[in-house]
Design a protein that fits this description.
By secondary structure, this protein is an alpha+beta fold. The chain has a single domain, classed as 3-Layer(aba) Sandwich (SMI1/KNR4-like), CATH 3.40.1580.10. 44% of the residues lie in helices and 13% in strands. A 5-stranded antiparallel β-sheet has the order 1-2-3-4-5. A hairpin with a 5-residue loop joins strand 4 and strand 5. Helix 1 runs parallel beside helix 8. The chain is globular, with a radius of gyration of 16 Å. 30% of the residues are buried. The mean pLDDT is 90. InterPro entries: Knr4/Smi1-like_dom, Knr4/Smi1-like_sf. It comes from Mucilaginibacter paludis DSM 18603. This is Cell wall assembly/cell proliferation coordinating protein, KNR4-like protein.
Length: 168
């Protein structure tokens, strides 16, 4: 995943360098310093879940990642800032828990916001339920009709890089 994040960083900075800080332009990196195991454990205890391994690996690469393109992608938050959507945006949950949207609302009620706290979209990790035991990865915004699902965090970042290359 580190290679994909490095490619996203370099491509974004080369495409629109004025958007980024001097430090980001000089380093060619939109990420932060890696997190420590203790920080992940604190987040897991606070949330009452064991985070998925690919997300923990992401945090070991970078404890946060700046949005690569004009705010159409969320900025990923440091481990100490992730939280349940219900604690961040209860109004959104009210809307999505009305019929006929309840099937989405049920998922959002369990969602953890790992990206987009100050953006127009969220990146959500949804803990496994009893039906399949797999984490879900969603990009969710009011300008997207419903959720955009990904198979993994790597799938999401790969799609970001592919889209950046496509539109350039």
């Amino acid at each position: 995943m580190k290679t994909i994040l490095q490619e996203i960083s370099l491509f974004a900075i080369q495409s629109n360098g004025s958007t980024f800080s001097d430090e980001q332009r000089n380093s060619g990196w939109l990420g932060s310093f890696p997190t420590r195991e203790e920080e992940i454990q604190l987040a897991e205890r606070r949330l009452g879940v064991e985070l998925p391994s690919d997300y923990k690996n992401f945090l070991f690469i970078t404890n946060g990642f700046f949005t690569p393109n004009d705010a159409t992608e969320p900025t990923f938050e440091p481990a100490d800032r992730i939280s349940y959507l219900k604690d961040i945006d209860s109004f959104l949950l009210e809307i999505w828990n009305e019929a006929p949207l309840m099937h989405i609302g049920e998922q959002l009620n369990r969602a953890i916001v790992v990206g987009g706290l100050n953006d127009e979209q969220y990146f959500l990790l949804i803990p496994p339920d009893s039906s399949d035991g797999k984490w879900q990865y969603w990009k969710f915004a009011n300008w997207i009709p419903g959720e955009k699902r990904y198979g993994s965090l790597k799938d999401y970042f790969t799609s970001v890089l592919d889209l950046m290359k496509e539109v350039s």
